[in-house]
Every structure is written in C-alpha cells, then in structure tokens.
Amino acid sequence: MSNKILKTAFNLFYHNGKLLPIAEAVIPLSSIEYAYGFGVYETIRVSNGVVYFLEDHMERLIESAKIIGLEHSFSQSAIEKGINDLVAETQSESFNIKILLIGAPTKEGASLSALCFNPLFPDKKLFKEGASLITYNHERVFPHAKSLNMLQSYIAYKKAKEAGAYDALLVNRNGFITEGTRTNFFCIDGKIIYTPPEKDILLGVTRKALLKVAEANGYEIVQKDISLDGVKKYDGAFISSTSTKILPIKIIDAEILPSPSENLKNLMVLFFDFLKNCNGKF
Description:
alpha+beta, 2 domains
C-alpha cells in the first residue's frame, strides 16, 4: 500500500471499549432504537493529532443522552480514552470523528461507536464572499439534545443543496430563526453579537468557543429573538460549526445581506488564530 493511500484510509473504529476493523462497523437491521432515532451523537475535529474540545463534546454527549432518557453504562473518561486511542492509531493528519451512542431496552445493551471520516469544508471563497442559505419551518423537540432524530433537518438540508445553498436556517412557529440544520446562527451589529435564546437552540461547542473569544476581545453577547425580516437591520449575519468555523452569510432566501463588516472580519481572524494556537482546549 502506498503512503498516500495509508494517509487517507480509516482502517479502524472504536466500539464498546475496543478498536476494531472498519469492516465490522455495522448496525443490525433489527435495531429499533437506531431505526427510530433513539440515539445521540457528536462530531469532533482532529488536526495534527490534536482532538479539539474533547471534554466539552463528551459532556454534551452525556447530557444529550440524559435529555432523551437514554440510559447507558459508558463513563465519560472511558469514552475519552477510546477516542484518544483511535486517534493514535489513525494514519491521517486531519479528519473528523463521529460518535454514535445508541440506546437499547436496557442500559447494558446500549452501544457506543466512533469512526473517522473526511470533513466537508466550505469553499474558501465563501469565507470572503459569504454563503447563501435558505429557510425552513421547523423546530427540534429537544433543542439541547444532539439526537439522531434528524429527519426534518435532513429534508431542510436536502432542499438547501437543491437550491445551491450552503445550509438551511430553521424558523420556529413564532417566525424566529433558531439555528441551521448543522450550524449555529448569529447576527452582528458593531461589536455586538446577537444569538437566538439559548433555550431554543443546540449549544454548539464551536459556538461556545467563538463567544469566549469574542468576549475576551471586547465584543458584547446578547440573546435575542431574530426574525427573518429583522436580519437586514444588522451589519451582517454568520453561522458556525465544527467544520464551518465562522462563515459569513451573503443571502438568506432572496434577501441580500451586507458584506462582512470589519468587526466580523476581525472576529474571524481572532477565532481562526485561537483555533490554531489553543491546542484543542478552551
């Protein structure tokens, strides 16, 4: 096998305390829990051997399971060790890890798997020009749980791709934007960053990091309901996620937004520098 192939191949995955060949990464068709979405997941970034914000992702995984009533016997420390073992055996410099915790009739039957995959990064020009997004009317049942019950988000994302958009923004029954299908949403006005109320959204780990960086550099954070019509009143808007980092928004549906402001550009530089130098920790 050539070195090039070795560097891009993911030969192992983690399952219930063991590293196993990727060929054994299967889920029985008889798993009602998986078929019905009774599970939770996390996506973690790995770059040059650094696992980004592992503890924070694990805390959210455990909390997500608790929110939906998924009982299991996995400790946070054991999961973290398994992830680090998987990273140590993976012959690739940069990749993502997806963790799946799937429930069962008993907590002993719950399963936990982690597998590596190549992330889908935005086109670099989008960081300068901004991305196009659409809207989709939907609100998740358990906003703070990163669960496998993602049908509506899947449909919304599919519609976004069909429209040539980067993502879809979810709009709740009151007409307010909450989040993207796989991203958090923000508006910015001067050095004030507006975020939808935390009770209504998934508390993204990347979101947590960027708000920490923003506050440390003189930005003010305000939680506020944001309507689609109200977005154009701000200097601009942006989204964040593990792979997206900070991505300006150029268009929402047919509404053209202002070009990225200097304050947003500065925040992007500050956050990218933080990710480069933080060694995967807050």
